[in-house]
Design goal:
Blueprint lengths: L7 H7 L3 H16 L14 H19 L1 H11 L3 H10 L5 H26 L1
Helix pairs in contact: 2-6, 3-4, 3-6, 5-6
């Protein structure tokens, strides 16, 4: 079985679907909670990105400076490896590292939700 590849355009389209946004927000909240990091989401899908990106970036900055092994654990939990980081670094030249990682986290969490929806639909 071939896995679907979700382009940045498909990720953008997913952020227009309320159920996918809510599922992605819940996944982010769950993954960060595993590391004792609180993330809040109002449920207002129109402000999904703005609400979460600011909170996540603060947590990412803090983990990088105060608990690097926790930071690496979070990336592992979310399933982000060196290849994805290198790709985003190339795509987002000039962006601060925590900002770039935040983008990558949000995109990866949306992909997780899309994969689940894809396989649920295939059953």
């Amino acid at each position: 079985m071939t896995l679907p590849v979700f382009s940045k355009d498909e990720l953008q389209k997913a952020t227009q679907k309320e159920d996918l946004i809510l599922a992605a927000a819940n996944q982010i909240i769950k993954d960060f909670a595993e590391f004792g990091l609180e993330v809040h989401f109002s449920g207002k899908t129109a402000s999904f990105y703005e609400e979460l990106s600011g909170q996540l970036e603060v947590h990412v900055r803090q983990l990088i400076s105060e608990n690097y092994s926790g930071f690496m654990g979070l990336l592992y939990r979310i399933d982000i490896g060196p290849r994805e980081i290198a790709q985003y670094e190339a795509d987002m030249k000039g962006f601060p590292y925590p900002r770039m990682i935040t983008e990558l986290i949000i995109h990866r969490e949306i992909k997780k939700v899309l994969f689940r929806a894809y396989f649920k639909q295939k059953k």
